Amino acid sequence: MRPEDWQDAGTSSWDPTLEPPEEADSTTLQEVLESAQPQTSRHVQAKFASTSVASSLVFSEVSDWALPQQSTSAMKPSRPKPKPQTSSNLVSHQSRRNSNRNRLCFLYPYPISLNSVVNTSVKRMADKILRFAAMHLTIDEYSLRCPDCLLLPSNPVSGKCGHTRCYKCVRNNQLELEWDGTVKRCPCGNVEFDVSQVNVLAKDILEKLLQTEKKIRAYIKQTFESQSLKDSSDMLNISEYYGVSVEHLEEHRLADTSSRIPISPQIRYNYSFELVESTRYLEASCELAKVAVSTNNVLSRKARKVLEQLLSYMTRGKFCDTTKNVICGLLSSQATKSWLKPSDLECVLCFETFTKPITTPCGHTYCQTCIERSVDYNLPCPLCKRSLRGFNLRSMCSINMIDTVLTSIGAVKPDIVPDPNVIPLCVCTVAFPGVSCSLFIFNRRHWLMVRRIIETEPRYFGMIPTEMQPNSCYGTILEVRDCLLLEDGSYILSTIGVSRFKMIEKNVCDGYDTARIEVISDIVTEMSLLPELNVLAEEISTKFTTWLTSMPRNLVTEILSSYGTITTVDSDVDTWSATDGPTWHWWIITILPLSHEVKVLMLSSTSLHKRLIAISRTLSTILQSLEATTEADKRTHQDLIVS
């Protein structure tokens, strides 16, 4: 196989006689890098000034990974002998070396001049690599930093605000605040609790994390520990570059500071040029791809442009599956999924990946819903059996570190869009639209349901009678107006009926009942029935007033305090056209001495005319019984007087 036949293998032909150009082109990758060079201290400059730039590299020195592998070594063209250096070449070469020594940067200049124009094939290959990198992410270590020391936490402790900090930082902060007599707060401003146990899950994740990407961590350690920290201005510059607080720079030799520096996109971007100078182009492409899919928008655009030109150089402007596959293999081997599985982030109570992870004071992590149900029943920690009495879950936020790790491995559960036809269900009694209903929720299985109802808008849930009664599939949607939490965890709810429904399907969610419902409404009242409805309304108003005045005053007061004041009985056209009819007739049905079966039957009826007739007949029966009772009392009274 000849060198000119390599185009069929995905790369262009290779000219063994090609030498490095004397001068860089006007549009080179080096100019792109110079625009991204950060300003650093003179000590950093001195460290890198002694590093020689591989400006004498030729195209033949590309890593063998990027070139097609031949079956025998005889098929490879021999490397050309270097030409003798002339005096002019030596002067030009020495001047370029001196100019590179005086460069202030952590970035290494690119060793070969490249044309900045990238063809479509290379861009298409870069797009595929970046799409693969987006599906095989690495952890954003900056989001795992301790808010105090800005390093990866050592002996991590999670607070109420969801931030994870070093045990030492928390303790030092608390000692300072106790000395000043101020409230203990996290750097984010939220009030923190006393020093608790180390977060077991977070510590395990960090230990695994520090065992990954050892090459770049060794690069960070080498560059960080070689800096001189005598000048305060240098300390400030270096702390900004590495993202470490100045206080921890002073004691970095006494602790493991350098090993806990988080890998930022900027550090990864600079490390890629260290790899380029070492002719490790495929590894550099892998690091650039990680930066290109990071959240740093400015740096990601630069990394993408550098990646495209590096790919163009390695593949001679052609789409090469071999190069793409090798880079994707490197990305896959370094992704978070390669060392952390979803099974490592499962709740021991529900055996599923964490949803809103909460850490208890004993340092164990559970789903918020799972630990809430456990605390409702006054159960201890499921793992260590430590008492959780007094642990206020309502003040706890989801642990940011675990949420970040779940995102990096793609194990975050998508938010479930609530179905408006599925509502929480309470099986208790009969409620009616527009009528107040007070509830005492003492059953622990309903406490989680009440908390979720209060946190959502609108605060609706369904009420149906006990399932032993006929037509128990009909109920009323209630809206929570007020809620009172008692010391033992039970609730007193003040609700009002909104509308009627028919239960289509019943399920169980997190221990409480839910139902898929269908809202029901009255059939449209015909205009010919309006006069009759007006007559029925007048009769009901008269009969009800008579019955109400015959009741004892204390009984009337109790009824009004339980169900509210009755609305005025009116006969407007708008009243008859309401979906559930006028509110006053439901109020009367509520206090009528009827069985639950009859009330549920009236609730399920879609005919306003039939309900009014039933109310009128019931009131007539009540008044007749009152008259009969009155006549009997009079006769008894007369008999007693005569005797």
From TrEMBL:
Family annotation (CDD domains): RING-HC_LONFs_rpt2 (cd16514)
GO molecular function: zinc ion binding
Organism domain of life: Eukaryota
Region spans: Disordered: 1-29, 70-97
A Pfam family this chain is assigned to: LON_substr_bdg
Keywords, in A-Z order: Metal-binding, Zinc, Zinc-finger
Residues annotated as domain RING-type: 347-385
Bias kind Polar residues: ranges: 84-93
Lon N-terminal domain sequence ranges: 420-623
InterPro entries according to UniProt: Lon_prtase_N, Lon_prtase_N_sf, PUA-like_sf, Znf_RING, Znf_RING/FYVE/PHD, Znf_RING_CS
PANTHER family in the cross-refs: LON PEPTIDASE N-TERMINAL DOMAIN AND RING FINGER PROTEIN C14F5.10C, RING FINGER PROTEIN 127
Protein's name according to its UniProt entry: LON peptidase N-terminal domain and RING finger protein 2 isoform X2
Species assigned in the record: Galleria mellonella (Greater wax moth)
Gene: LOC113519215
